[in-house]
Amino acid sequence: MRPIDQKLQNQLKLSEFSDKSLLILDDDDPLRGRLSRAMEKKGFAVKEAKTVADSLDIVRKSPPNFAVIDLRLEDGNGLDVVKELYANRKDSRIVMLTGYGNLPTAVAAVKAGAIDYIAKPVDADDVEAALLAAPESKAKPPENPMSADRVKWEHIHRVFELCNRNVSETARRLKMHRRTLQRILSKRSPR
Q1: Region 14-32 average pLDDT
Q2: Is the pLDDT of residue 189 over 80?
Q3: In sequence order, what are the beta bridge partners of 105?
Q4: Above pLDDT 90, what percent of the chain?
Q5: In terms of domains, do 81 and 167 share one?
Q6: How does strand 93-98 pair with strand 21-25?
Q7: What is the pLDDT of residues 35-73, one digit of tens each?
Q8: How far is the C-alpha of 135 from the C-alpha of 105, rounded, in Å?
Q9: Could you give the C-alpha distances from 143 to 53, 75, 125, 158, 173, in angstroms and in order?
């Protein structure tokens, strides 16, 4: 069997699901909007949420069949939403998103009820593939994964934002010389 045929065989079709409801929880407005529009074009009935509180309301009122949930949010942790959704609807297909992926968080997401875990930035095709992956198949690697330089750049900027854009505090926490950090912060993001 050719690899392309095998990929298609391990992929479910959205038409196989009577409930096409999809919750997208992300506090990044441009990403959430772009992903919502793309998933609607693919046939999903999308509900958007920006906070844990909003998404918990949606999950309790009408638990969606599919969910794409960011891990770190302004008002809490996306794992709380995964647990609540899984408690309300065991057959839901949940994918966790994060810009700062690591193995312990991936394990926690899967234990809480997620079927897959994807590092940002993501595109709609990767999300759709993860949501519709056959349960027995392994997730395929992303077509365009972040480079190691991009992952490092994203992590440094995340810590910088968490330190309220304080260069000295960020450098201390990253165990990096302040001038080195300033040079990295002044450069554009790698691809």
Answers
A1: 88
A2: no
A3: none
A4: 30
A5: no
A6: unpaired
A7: 999 999 999 999 999 999 999 999 999 999 999 998 888
A8: 21
A9: 33, 32, 10, 24, 33
* pLDDT tens string 100-124: 655 566 677 777 788 888 877 788 8
Domain total of the chain: 2
**In-domain check, residue 16:** yes
Q: What is the CATH number of the domain that holds 10?
A: 3.40.50.2300
Angle between helices 78-88 and 52-61 (to 10 degrees): 0
Q: 86, 101, 131 — which closes off a domain?
A: 131
Q: What's the whole-model pTM score?
A: 0.67
Q: Which CATH number does the domain housing residue 152 bear?
A: 1.10.10
Looking at every residue in the chain, the average pLDDT score rounds to: 82
SS (H, E, C) the chain: CCHHHHHHHCECCHHHCCCCEEEEECCCHHHHHHHHHHHHHCCCEEEEECCHHHHHHHHHHCCCCEEEEECEECCEEHHHHHHHHHHHCCCCEEEEEECCCCHHHHHHHHHHCCCEEEECCCCHHHHHHHHCECCCCCCCCCCCCCCHHHHHHHHHHHHHHHCCCCHHHHHHHHCCCHHHHHHHHHCCCCC
pLDDT in the model for residue 1: 40
Closest CA to 39 of 59, 65, 63: 65
Q: 157 lies in which domain range? A: 148-186
